[in-house]
Amino acid sequence: MSVAFEEAAGGRRRSVAPALVGPATILVVLVLVLPMAILFRYSLNQFVPGQFMVEAVTIANYVRFFTDIYYINVLWTTVQVAIACTVISLVLAFPVAYFLARTTSRFKSILVILAVFPLMVGNVVRAAGWMVVLGNDGVVNAVLRWIGLVEEPVKLLYTPTAVIIGIIAVVLPYMILTLQSVLEGIDYSVEEAALNLGAKPSTTFFRIVLPLAMPGVVAGTVLVFILCMNAYATPVLLGGPQFKMMAPALYDQIARSTNWPFGAALAFVLMATTLTLTIVSTTVMQRRMRR
Amino acid sequence: MSEFERTTGMRLTRRGFLAGTGAAALAAGLPMPALAKGQVIVGTWGGDYQALLTANFEKPILEKKGIEVIHDISGAPPRKTKLLAERVSRRGTMDVACLSDIDMFEMSKQNLFDNVDPTKVPNAKNIFKQLAKPYAIPHIYSGKVLVYNPNKMSPTSFADFLDPKYKGRIGFADGLYMQIIESAALVNGGSMSNYEPGKATLTELKKFEPKVFPSNETLAAALKSEEVWATVMWRARGFMWKKAGIPLATIAPKEGTTPIIFDAAVPKNAQNKDNGWAYLDAMLDPGGQVLFADRMGYVPTVNNAKLPDDLAKEIGFTEAEQEKFNIPNYEYIAANNAALLEWWNKSFKA
Question: Which of A141, A149, A195, B170 could be cross-linked to B210 through a Cys-Cys bond (beta carbons 3.0 to 4.6 Å apart)?
Answer without folding.
Answer: B170
